Amino acid sequence: MTGTPPWDLALLVGVLVANRSLVRWFPATLFFWGFQGVIAATAIYFGVQGIGGLEHVQAVRWLVVGLLVFHLVQNVALRRGGKKL
Q: Which of 46, 26, 40, 29 is nearest to 72 (CA)?
């Protein structure tokens, strides 16, 4: 691993923490769909780039992408009145 800070891990943690804490407290439609776009963009970023220092480990890359997509689907299901997955 190079001497650069792990900004991609900070991005992942920030998105997951925001998903856990902010989505349920801000019912505004624009904020909700905007944040779902952020989750989708983060999943695409990690699908293409991988995590710094672990780019060669494909399982980690797809596990992170799967986790983000799961959160996106769960948020939409909860928004429509469904139960938490």
A: 40
- Decide if 40 contacts 46 (C-beta within 8 A): no
- Evaluate if residue 33 carries a pLDDT over 80: yes
The answer to whether 32 and 77 are in contact (CB under 8 A) is no
Question: What predicted TM-score, i.e. pTM, was given to this entire model?
Answer: 0.79
What ranges in the chain are assigned the alpha helix state H?
Answer: 7-21, 29-49, 58-79
Contact criterion met (CB below 8 Å) for 38 and 15: yes
- The answer to whether 42 touches 12, Cβ cutoff 8 Å, is yes
The answer to whether 42 touches 11, Cβ cutoff 8 Å, is yes
